[in-house]
Specification:
The protein is α+β, with helices and mostly antiparallel strands. It has one domain: Orthogonal Bundle (Transferase(Phosphotransferase), domain 1). Helix content is about 25%, strand content about 15%. The protein contains ten helices and 14 strands. The chain has helices at about 60-75, 115-120, 130-135, 205-220, 230-235, 250-260, 270, 275-280, 285-305, 355-370; strands spanning about 20, 30-35, 40-45, 50-60, 85-90, 100-110, 115, 140, 150-155, 160, 170, 335, 380, 380. Strands 2-3-4-6-5 form a five-stranded antiparallel sheet. Strands 7-9-10 form a three-stranded antiparallel sheet. Helix 3 runs parallel beside helix 10. It is globular, with a radius of gyration of 21 Å.
Length: about 425
């Protein structure tokens, strides 16, 4: 057995890549490091056809199933206007016994950076209420890791969700999830594992994360930002509230609906879309124009100053992957749709407006809930937006008959893929 062959038990005879993903044809180069996270690093890259792209280099030697699951969800949701476009991915075999297996995931590059960076780069670290509302529209699917580092902004102020490593299918019998996953400061109380009590929760855990992100946008940091253990504070204290009394009653009411500790009392994405905080939103074009102007001011300010090291949000320590294997980009990638836990990735940028953001996230979350069968809805925080038709397809859908089964124990760097004409090559 080759040294890179997996050693742990598997249900199948050998781990196979069951769905084909074709990365962009041609030369891909890696440039500056954009961010570091628990499963990989993200680089700014350039492709001679796609232009500027983001390249996530994931270490599948550490957690291959979660990485492959993320690629599956990216492919299914890539057609949605509020999901970063997925251009392709390819497997890179280890070069020696000391190196790791990598998966190079090529995504749309969001020039505006992340919401996390926007918050930290805005004077006073408090964003306009109309900006907050806009972002809420994007929380329309159950993502399990909704937080400011995973919400990106384009140069024009459009909202894009990234990092689908924690996406999960709900139990077909009762619509619940039983895996305690997420980032501590944004996790809902019911998703936190308690001693002697099983975890069971549904899509409303993302609504809680949305509310925490809203407080972060308003006040510059999450509740309990510098206090530990966070899980005990979330479980034992009342729901977080805004410290300042200057915010509108609509915003305060919206947060209260998001941050009900009892899931049955917490509003759904559909209900939140009818809240006055959302319905009284100014035109999107107006808000995006303001946001675009703000991003340009920040960018001009940053270009006049020397680069300053960015501080990552709470999370695991990053790892340093080997260099990109550029030759692999000429081949398509097939990946399975396994079901296992997945760590999250922090992406560091610096982008600003709560109102519009809420609206887009909520719509995405709502549509993924409506389009697919309730027993098989995607566990993503996009529960409120209209997802592409592919969202309603179960992960167990039959595969194309010509799909290539890839056995890692018998493959070499340049011979494992077969071209199936994937739509990702558009």
């Amino acid at each position: 057995m080759p040294f890179w062959a997996p050693q742990r038990k598997r249900e199948a005879e050998c781990w196979s890549l069951s769905e084909t993903y074709k990365p962009p044809n041609g030369r891909l180069t890696k440039d500056m490091l954009l961010g570091e996270g628990g499963t990989g690093n993200v680089y700014k890259g350039r492709h001679h056809l796609k232009g500027v792209v983001a390249v996530k280099i994931a270490n599948i030697s550490r957690d291959e199933e979660s990485v492959c699951r993320e690629v599956n969800f990216l492919r299914k949701f890539s057609g949605h206007k509020n999901v970063a476009a997925f251009h392709g991915a390819c497997y890179s075999a280890p070069l020696n016994e000391c190196s790791s297996e990598l998966l190079e995931i090529v995504l749309e590059y969001c020039e505006g950076g992340s919401l996390y960076d926007l918050i930290n780069s805005t004077e006073g670290q408090s964003l306009r209420e109309t900006w907050i509302d806009t972002q809420a529209h994007m929380n329309r699917a159950v993502h399990r890791d909704i937080k400011s580092p995973n919400i990106m902004l384009t140069e024009k102020g459009k909202v894009k969700l990234i990092d689908f490593g924690l996406c999960w299918d709900l139990d077909p019998q009762n619509g619940k999830c039983y895996e305690s996953e997420g980032t501590a400061h944004w996790m809902a109380p019911e998703a936190i594992r308690r001693r002697g009590k099983p975890v069971a929760y549904d899509t409303k855990c993302d609504i809680w994360s949305l509310g925490i992100t809203a407080i972060e946008m308003a006040e510059g940091e999450t509740p309990y930002a510098n206090q530990y253990p966070v899980s005990d504070l979330i479980l034992n204290n009342d729901a977080p509230e805004l410290q300042s009394k200057t915010w509108s009653q609509n915003f305060v009411s919206f947060l209260k609906c998001c941050l009900e500790k009892e899931p049955s009392k917490r509003w759904s994405a559909e209900d939140l879309l009818q809240h006055q905080f959302i319905t009284e939103l100014p035109p999107k074009k107006t808000i995006r124009a303001e946001l675009k102007k703000h991003l340009q001011v920040l960018q001009n300010h940053l270009t006049k100053k020397a680069p300053v090291p960015m501080t990552a949000p709470p999370g695991p320590s990053p790892f340093k992957p080997p260099q990109l294997n550029q030759s692999c980009l000429e081949h398509p990638l097939t990946v399975s749709s396994p079901s296992s836990r997945a760590p999250y990735l922090h992406i560091l940028f610096r982008p600003p407006y709560l109102h519009q953001w809420y609206l887009e996230i909520l719509q995405l979350h709502q549509q993924s809930h409506i389009e697919g069968p309730r027993h098989h809805q995607w566990y993503l925080t996009f529960h409120l937006m209209v997802p592409p038709p592919a969202v309603s397809l179960p992960s167990s859908a039959p595969l194309p008959p010509d799909c290539l089964s890839f056995h890692r124990s018998t493959c070499h760097t340049s011979r494992f893929f077969k071209n199936h004409g994937s739509t990702c090559d558009a």
